[in-house]
Structure formats: C-alpha cells, structure tokens
Amino acid sequence: MGDGTRNPRAAQVEVDVGTGSVPSINAQGICKRFDANVALDNVDFAVCAGEIHAVVGENGAGKSTLIRILGGVHRPDRGNIFVAGRPCHFASPRDAIAAGIVTIPQELRLLPTLSIAENISLGHPPLRRFGPAAFVDRGSMRAAASAVLSQLDFHPDPDRSVASLSFAERQIVAIAKGLARECRVFILDEPMAALEHREVERLFAVLARMQARGTAVIYISHELEEVVAIADRCTVLRDGRVVAVRGRGAFSVSDLVAAMTGGMMDDATHAAAQSGDVLLAAKADGVNTVEARAGTILGFAGLLGSGADGILRRLFGLATPMTVDVGGRTHRFKNPANAIAAGIGMVPGERSLGLVMNLSVRENILLPNLDLLSRLGRFDTRAADRMVRELMELFDIRPRNPKLKAHALSGGNQQKVILAKWLARRIAVLLLQEPTQGIDVAAKAQIHALIREFVNGGGAALVNSTDLGELVRLCDAVCAVRRGRIVAAPRRGADLDETKLRSAIGG
Amino acid sequence: MIRPPKLAGQMPLVSLIVLCVVTALLTDRFLSPLNLANILVQSSIMAVIAMGMTFVIVGGGFDLSVGSTAALSGCVASMVMLEAGIAAGSLAGIVAGALVGLGNGLVIAFLNVNPFITTLGSMVLVRGVVFLITGGAPVSGETGLPAAFVAFGSDRLFGIHYLVWVPAILLAVLSVVMHATPYGRRVYATGGGREAAYLSGVPVRRVIASTYVWCGALAGIAGVMLAARLQSGQPTAGEFYELTAIAAVVLGGAALTGGEGTLYKSVIGVFIMIVLGNALNLLNVDSYWQRVAIGVVIIAAAAAERLRSVH
After folding, report:
1. Closest chain B CA to residue A380
2. What is the pTM of this model?
3. Do residues A468 and A500 touch, judged by C-beta distance below 8 A?
4. SS3 at position A289
C-alpha cells in the first residue's frame, strides 16, 4: 500500500458519525474469494438515504464484485449486509430486488427480441385481473414505459424491439428499466459508458430527483470528473480493500487517482505531431474528403445518430461501401477482410466484438494474422509463439499468460489485446470506436500512449468517441459530424477545444 | 479449488478408463481379444461420423442429417461400384456425402436458416432420395459387391481391422487441419464469436459452409465403410447415428454453443458410448433398460461438464 493511504476503518467511523442516520444499505466486513483470487478483503461500505455514493477503483479493484454482492448475484464468503438496519441474506438477485435494491449492470441485460416496453416492465408487468385470471395490461405497460423514458428525454415507439436500437439507446432503456422500479437503493455500474454529454446531463437530473425522494444511489464510474461533480461521498477500492472514503469537497480528481493507483500515474499531453504522407483518403460524407496522414490521430465526434460512427464502419467495409484510397490504390471494401488486406484494422466499440471471448489471448492475437504466419497451409507455431510473447510484453498485457481465455481479462487488458492483434500486422490505418470505454484511468493512459506510439511509428489512427474530452486530448484534429456531414474540423494548436467541439456537434 | 489443469480437461478420458476398469472387474469376457476387436470395429464407423460432427459443432452449428447421408453414400457407392469398380464407387459415395454437406452449408451460412431445421429437413429428404434410388431394397447386385471391397470390411492389417485404420489415419490428419492450419483456427474463432471473427477478417460464411462439407464427406466415408461391413448398400442403414454422434461429441467436452471441442476427445466420446453399450450387453442388462441407462449417462455427462465450468 502507498504512503498516502488512510486507515480504512478510521475513515468509515468518521463518516458514520458525520451522517448519524441508519444507512439504507450497510455492508460490513465483506470478504469474497474466487478460487485463489481475493476479490474483496474485509470491506465496509454504507450508503444513506438521499445520498449519491460513488465507488471508484482500477479494473480488478473489486467494484463489480461489491455491487454484485449487494445485488444478490454473488454471496459473500464472510460479512453481513443490512438493509435499513435489518440483516439480509440474498440468495439471488430476486431477493435483492424484493429488498428494494435495483442494479443497472454494466453488461446490459436486455432481451433483444422483446419490445422496449416489455423489457422495461420485465418481472413486474402491470396486470389486469378477471376473477382468478390475470392478463398483462399492455396499454398501461406502454404508457409506463413512455413515461419513464421521457424522464430521460428519449421518445421511441415503446413497441419497437430492443434489437433495433443502437448500443447507447439500449443503455438508456436499461437505465429506464431500473428507474421503473420502486427502490430503496439504486446501483449504476458504469452507466455512462456509451452516453453522450446530453444524455449524461439528463441522467444526472433524474438521479438528483431520486436523491430528493430519499433513494440511496451507488454510482460506479471511471469518469472521475463526473464523480467529483455529482457524488456526495466517494469510496476508493484498491486490490479488494477500501483505501479511502471521502465526503464532498474532500476529494479532487487527482486525489482519487492517487488513491486508486497508489500514487503512480502519468497523463502526458503531447505537442501537435508532424504530419506525413496521406495514408487514407475518402469522401467520408459524400462531400468532404477525409485524409488520414501518417503520424496523426484524427477524431470523429457527433451526437447519437449523427453518423459519426457510421463513417468508421463504412471505411471498414461494414456498411454501404465507399471509395477509399489506401496505399496509393482505390478500393471499395465490401467486407472487413477486404479492408484488412488493404492495411486497415478496427477496434470496435463493444469489446465482445473485438475478441472471441472463449478463445485464448494467443488465438485472438493470431486470428487476423494467420495468413502472415502460414507456410504451405500450416502455420508456423514457433513464430506465432514468439510474436504473441513479444506483443504481450510490449503491450504489458496482464496476466502474462497467452493461454488464458479472453473473457478472464479485465477490460483494459482486453483492449490491449485488441490493439496487439492489429499492430502485429503492421497495418497502416487503425480505426477505433470508443477506445477507452469502461476502462480505468491507468489503463486509459496506457491505451492512449499505445495509439500515439502506433502513429509515431508511421501509422494513422481514426478515432470515434462520445467522450469529447478524450478526443480533444488524444487527437490532432477532430471532425465534428452532424446528420452525416462533417461540419467542422478543428485542429490541435489552432481551434480544438472541448466547448467549441460540443457546440459544433450540436450538444 | 485449484485443480491440476492437465487433469481438468481430461474428464472424457478418465471416464472411459473408469468405465473400462469397472466393466473388466464385473465381467470376464470384456477383455477377451474378440470383444475388444468388436468394440474397435463398432466404434470405427461412428468415430468417423463424430469427427465430422466435431467440425460442425466447433463452428457453432449442428448436423442431424449424417445418418441419412451415410446411408446415401453406402448405396451410391455400392451402385457405382457394381458398374465401375471399387475406387470409382468409393469416391462416388464420398462425393455424394460432401454434396449433401455443401447443400446444408450453403443454406445455413448464406440463407441464415437455423441449422437444426435445415439438417432436420435434409435428414428426411436424403432418406427419401435413398429409398427412391434403391427402391427400398439393399444394393448388392447379382453376385454381391467386389470381393476386395467386402474383404476391406472384415480383414485385418497388422492384426487390426482395416475399418479401424480409417478413423486412426483420419484422426491424425484432421487433427493437424484443426489445430495447425489457419483454416482450423478460423473454424474455432467463427464458432466462438461469429461477429468478432468477421471483424477480424474471417470469411465466416465460407467457414461455416465448409464445416458442413467436412461433415458430409466424413459421413460419406462412414457410409462406404458401413457398406463394406454389411457387404451391401443398405437404404435403412445409419438410423440414429446423428444422435449417437452428437452425444459422443458432447461427451468429449465440446460446447454446443460453438468454439470448443477436440477431435480426439470426440473419438473418446464415441468409445464411451460403445463401451457402455457393450458393458450393459455383457452384464445381460435388459435392452430397454440399456436405453434408459445411456440416456441418463448423456445427460449426466453434460450436466457434470456445466457444473465444472461454472465453478
């Protein structure tokens, strides 16, 4: 543990005296192991009515395990949970929900073939009774869904199937599903990952209303600026232990980072890069030509439905093909294989699409590179092993076990594997969607450094992100996209800043 | 609990050994050379089918048509053989199987029809075709199939039946295809995560279609072997082979969700099925109870696998 660590017990006592009331939820001495890994080690955690309590920590610090225990998904090995002062033992998420604890999980648990309204009322549908028979009241189900969605200013047809929604829209529906329940404790695990400024603001307004009604809100996020802005209290976890509990005003972003990492961090911003040859050029919106030059990172910013992410998908052959000049030749990519052959790689926004989760790290790194490693139809196992070992070293992928299945890695390490598999190919252009979504600060800095290193080595990167701050920090220029058109392209060192970018995209 | 990783993946082999030891202790006929040779021959044809099934299941699919395909291949091989010789006949049988697989694969991969429904349909369709071309009667000609072909179905090389050499050689060759070629790794990736594989440049539709071609061609080889053993093309042959093959692949630890499975473990799964039937026979268990027992074993094995992967 670092020097700046407080005694966790002392911090807990200090806060409990400060609030004085019975906490809505109180977990004491929680321990949880998974096989040999200690996920939580004697954790105390309490949230009072009307309080927004943030939980931060690096990937693997135990945040998700803690909320899964509070939500009844896992049972603690030791320790007790009290809801409004009464001891509770949750055998399943159903028990936790019955006790008034509602969780919005990080991975969306929506049923894609059902409608928006059906998803929102799942498990507690409004009923209409005729004597002994009960039927689902579809009219009030739709009305209830529309009402809760309009709190978030989202107005879709409630009969639409969830499968037809975008990832960010599905996230809004998942949040609405939680809001639709009466609850004492409301837990959000990384709720903003795919949301834009506008939606985030709206969600904050809803949380403030819940807070006023006396709901206890537990809020897990990697976005420390958000945490500082809305949390009344913040618990910092590191390696399964509580290392700090601070009240509002007693923590800043840099305090939190120091507590999370034990005091090691770098956030080097860089000077505008020297731009080199044009590696990729395309009429991305049918009018304006987008040029990706060697040594530069080009961003794409836009609101939900603006088409900013569609540009990257089309460049990779995933949507309507467009004419793309790469490496001095003109292409029309009909599928990803064509784009890859021309020297383009893609890091998709959902990590489950970037990796085959039940294959090993080694298999995933080799997958797009099988053609490079094959000799007479067989592939060169020794060269493959060497390549995987070097890349895992270079990208600091932990644990350093190439046989581990991808789903066993933390989000940050998964993202490094995705980068590694493309950089192994010596591709010219890397397309990235939401490259650091749901990744902790330390890993985020590493991912940014790796992208920067890639372009410094002569590549070009195109990045689409809903996190405008990230684009401004990372990119040399950012294209603001509105209704499929590039309306502005501010450059670093000239007119690139977050406020202007936000107004350019219409947020 | 931390297990030695080597043992954790070897449940099928451990189960087979336990099964053999228990049977050997309970009966004195199990270890007789005649019985062991019998088990090997019985397993050989099913092992070839199960290997094809492994390709399909690892690729994320499913094939119910292998039994009918084996019957078709046996009959086509016998008919062609009577006219044009052993080599042409065997080849025709295997090609017929591959064509059934190609049909399945194209419909499943390019028309996105559910594999269960597609191969359920082709199972019935192909069986109908077999009855149409044979008129429902066994194919063996006036004087029977060529003597050399019949000998292939019963004779031995170095003390081991020719029929047993076939899966042994196929297992060696196909294991290389699945584990040491780019193609094999793409099959695993496609089954493990179709969308992620597509985004990594894998031509997923072609890969999926190809697994059904393998499965059909291997069912074709099994059909030719079956014709040699039965000394005729039997239109009713191969019924319920698909179920035994799928059960064997699952007993071998493959996931029906795709992306997991190993050829040699599927072959061990076949041995478990055959040895279990053999043991129940030697113990004079009533044949109705045999079915009950085999059903219980399949479900228990799948459940044990699930429990192990959850914890």
Report:
1. B180
2. 0.74
3. no
4. strand
